[in-house]
Amino acid sequence: MDSDQIVDIIIGEIRETVPELADRPIGRGDSMADLGVDSIERSEIILATLEAVGLKVPMVQLHGPRNIGELADLIDAKKSG
Amino acid sequence: MPRKAADPIRFAGIGVASGLGHGRAAFREGLFAGRNVFSELKREGREAPEGEQPFLGVEMPEPPAVLPPRVDRTATLTGRVAASVLAEAWEDAGLDAIAPERIGLVVGGSNLATRERALALVEYWEKRAFVRPRHGHMFLDTDLCGLCTAAFPIRGFAMTVGGASASGAVAIVEARNAIRSGRVDACIALGAMQDLGGHDLQALRALGAMGSDRFSDVPEKACRPMDADHDGFLYGEAAAALVLCRESVGLSKTYGTLLGAASIADGTRGPEPNHEGQIRAARMALAEAGLAAADIDHVNGHATGTPSGDDTELETYRALGLHHTRINATKSILGHGLAAAGAIETAAVLVQMAEGRLHPTRNLETPIDPGFKWVGVAPVEQKIGHALKFSFGFGGVNAALVIGAPEASR
């Protein structure tokens, strides 16, 4: 699994959590905040992604990324590391 | 003549959901037809232990979606049904006419979503690291208050009250109190859907409260309140929202007036019924209404179909002198809605008042006590002036409501 596959998982979880975004193009450069995802929804999306990739890390270790691509890179790095 | 309150409190809107369907039209039609909706329970998480008879009862169709999809997907079934009955009652009463700060919400019921909670536990116990954060606010029954007040302009107050199987009636009592105290001008009493799982159902069966062994192969005959062949209550999914308001606030609809209401404790810890508590609650409600038992022309029983519950309630009817009045049991049609029962059965009283007709009591073929004027398996035409509604709950909760027809109480 690479960062692009994790991006696909994150985007799938975003569309599931916020049905209004079903038809909106979403890519690595988008941030969840800009997409209108609220903070609880963001936590839900990240937990669901972690479950999908099988990575157990405390949520605080995933603060910092400014967009979906950076979040996927960070999850990918933690998974590899 | 009933006592005239300075500013009586009346029922101005109804929203209902049950095995008969969603909305007042399906409710009315199904009640008077005495339509059978009992079958084996099929919803995920309601499986009986291996090798045992499936649980019998009533499940409702999928509720109409009234919440935005983004919110809807996060709500429990109990929450989605609550929003649906609230939407119907809101529109029926025309609550938009009242300032949000003058509207309150009392949700009756506790531990409402145990089926979904058990399913989530089974799925996530071994991988607790991935428990969804939203569970942190959803496991509280008061999530229903948040869900409903976020979707509707209710800004007076919102809370839950528990009274076991009397919760719906207790919610009506507390909504009445909130209006009477001046806290709000209108208040919704919402008997919430108690979503039982197989764990709960099995315990209720083991406790001897839930039937039915006798009619395990014929679900349509299994629920028999006040009949000699009764052997326990049958669960039925249900929910109801009732809008109560002060007469003077000017909502146009009037289903009936709440002339008297009482909810008292009898000092019982467990499921055992107590006729002294039942009698005291009824006498308090009647006294508040300024009525005698002789003035009551319809009794809607708690009447679950458990042998000790029915026997105790009959003792109460005898002590109060209710031999002259027509009695029926809404649970014979809907099953036992537990938290919702008191609210949806009060809705049944109001619908019967409006129609001048009493719904049948399914399966009441051989009344345990034929000395009462039962409404049997056929409906009865009768104008109702004053109705007495009973609701009892485990833990010694006894509630009684006296409701006057719009014309009788003016």
Secondary structure: number of strands of chain A: 0
Number of domains of chain A: 1
Structural class of chain B: alpha/beta
Question: What structural class do the secondary elements of chain A suggest?
Answer: mainly alpha
Architecture per CATH nomenclature, i.e. the level-2 architecture of chain B? 3-Layer(aba) Sandwich
Total strands of chain B: the figure is 17
In the predicted model, the low-confidence regions of chain A spanning at least 5 consecutive residues are none
CATH fold descriptor of chain A: Non-ribosomal Peptide Synthetase Peptidyl Carrier Protein, Chain A
What is the general shape of chain A?
globular
Query: What's the number of domains of chain B?
Result: 1
Family (chain B): Belongs to the thiolase-like superfamily. Beta-ketoacyl-ACP synthases family.
Region (Disordered) (chain B): 43-62
Domain Ketosynthase family 3 (KS3) (chain B): 1-405
Pfam family, one (chain B): ketoacyl-synt
